[in-house]
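Components:
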Amino acid sequence: MSVGHLSIEYSERFYSALLSLYPARFRVRFAPEMLQLFRDCAHDALEKGEVAVFAAFLVGMMRDLLLSIARERGKDWVRPVEGHPLIAIIDMLLIPTMVTMKLVVLGPVLTLLLRDGTKIPTDQFVRTSAFFSLAIGALAVMASIIFTRLRPTVRLWVKLSA
Amino acid sequence: MTKQAKAGAPEKPVESFLPLTPAVFHILLTLADGEAHGYAVMREVARRSGGSVRLGPGTLYGAISRLLEDGIVAESEERPDPEMDDTRRRYYRLTQLGGRVLTAETERLADLVKAARSTKVVRKLRPA
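Structure:
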């Protein structure tokens, strides 16, 4: 398998995982079509044969995806709450909670690092901060994906226990 | 699941959908020529706008989702010949309401251009 096809395969998997961040109503209806469209466009970009073109394509796709996720999530917040109130509340609070958790964890860590600032070289401090920030950000995204995947099960559980 | 416009529900006045965003206007223009799937819409919009409007999957399907809800576009029930196209793709078409919205937006834009051309500044800048 060529490097190009491997790049498409891995970028497709990543894109597919990020599609999980859409609200369920949108994901169920449009995710397969969006993935197909991503695949078509990735082949088009790869046909041009330049790494820079493919990289620019990926950056553009990620930007489009993240903005669109924010828009669709935003729509859900202003849309009248449907279904079970518990699910609606979890849905609404999920991303703000993840961001708050990130800040709550990152704040004390940075404070501790700053307190010992005289002992730690600057580059190490920056590296450590960046590592924590990225790691916690990645955890927040993973948690959102896992929750979105589990949501049908939670919905069923709520229905059965009601 | 995305809600489709309910049959028999009172139709909103065409003016309530205006103004359209450039992306939505281009999508409707593309569908005015006939039904198309997402990839075809994306390519046609890029071609028609000379590359100035480029739709990613998120923007395109976000817009289609809203247009379906408003009853401006509908999913085509006719499937293409499997030998000629991928049957996994969904095709979209302009509804009657969509046609009226597109016409109203075109007229609105034409009025705007007319108003702009009547100003001294634009008249001066216009090539002879």
